[in-house]
Amino acid sequence: MFLVRTSVGLILTALLAACAAVPSPTAEDDALTIGFVFIADGDDLGYNQAIYEGSEALARALPDTRVLRRSFVPEGGHLAEEAMEELIDDGASILFATSYGYREAARRVAERHRDVTVLHQGGIEGEPRLSNFGTYWGTIEDPVYLAGIVAGGATETGRLGFVAAFPIPAVLNNINAFLLGARSVRPDATVRVRFTGSWCAPTIQKTAALELLDTGVDVLTQHQDCTRTILEVAERAGVFSVGYHQDGSEEAPEGYLVGAVWTWTDVLVDIVRTIRSGDFPASPYNGDFRGGYATGDNPFVLSEMSSLVPRESRAMVRAAEQRLLDGWSPFAGPLADRAGRERVPPGRTPTRQEIEAMDYVVEGVLGAVPPR
Predict the structure, then answer these.
(1) pLDDT score for 372
(2) Which of 120, 145, 184, 238 would give a disulfide with 330, using CB separation of 3.0 to 4.6 Å?
């Protein structure tokens, strides 16, 4: 009897040990895995911080998901593609490629992995369209136009400064919208622009901002990924600043007027829920989704205006916001470039595709625009 009991005990012990050696599925294994690729980290007080914080908010809003991130992934060459492939190897079935230069890599990955849904931030999908690929963005000119109204009401000289990265349509779009907003308040306003040739190069940004200050500008704004440097230059010089991507009021408490900033959470959550439900192929995200003021889903909005903004400017901003809600565009015709060529005739509003292909600056923009 003792031998039988001992044999049974040994067998049970062996079986339990064998079961313990085989890992059982965990909640993490079963979780939907989402991958993000960033060109920098989440601490640039700008473009990357905004979307990084959006990825964190997505994880909080959908706690049964697993969010993976790859930072400092260059745009050119094969490295972006490799980073996305690594995320897929780690289980990602949804990818967010968050920088402008990732589009081609993201599309190639989507073509190879038809069971993975790939979203590109800010690009245009192109042809042929894929059922597992799309782009997402906002109508960026709207809050930048509103910020221009604030700048136009604040400037004493009528000279505004703009530190820009590259002469791509999104940047030219913002330069033009900012000036048009300012000119709705002060018709003689000008925007002097300096291009840095980089999304984030603090030393070059500082030089560009100082050069603009030397021309007499008294409001500085920018389209750069990292925004801290230019805000600091403006603050030290005692001139006004207008933020971009992220609220920079704490960096420039004496001169910060307002900012045009990203609020990504709602869009990201809705994209993931749409994919989960199986509705992505028939959704607006399977194409070129653009949130807007008129549709109430623009992820790019005007930040809270500082106490430096007078009541009159606030009223003008609210009136312009209502026009945007009614479907008006800052680029409604007539609109000419700075060479005097008509780009949008009177009574016409350019299409979203035309706006996002903008390759010119309007009259009143000063400074060289390098070729793309």
Answers:
(1) 80
(2) 145
